[in-house]
Write a structure and sequence with these properties.
This protein is an all-alpha fold and 113 residues long. The protein has a domain of 50 residues. Helices cover 54% and strands 0% of the residues. The chain is built from three helices and no strands.
Length: 113
Amino acid sequence: MFGIGLPELAVIAFVAILVFGPDKLPEFAKQAGRFVREAKKFADGARDQLREELGPEYADLELTDLDPRTFVRKQISQLAAEDVGVDGPLKQGTPRQRPLRPGELPPYDDQST
C-alpha cells in the first residue's frame, strides 16, 4: 500500500494521536474513508467513461495501461510472444547472423548517416 510498511504506519498513527487527540481521531478516520471511497468511485467512473467513448476494441482497458512504462512493457511482451514460434526463437525466414571472428570488423554502411 503506497510503499508504507508496518513501522511507518505505526509512526503515522502515533503522530496522528498526538496531533489530533484520541477523541477527534475517529472522525478524521471516517472522513479519510469517505475520501478514499469517493476517489475510487471517481476513478472507476473515469475508466468506464473512457471505455465507453473508445468503443468495443478497448473493452479491456485499465487506467494502468495508460502509464507509459506499463504500455511499453505490454508491447514488448506481446512482440516477444509473437517472435517465439514453432521453429524456435526467430520467425521462419529470418536470416540467422553469425558471430564475428576474432579481428573481424562489423559491417559498416557509409550511407546510413
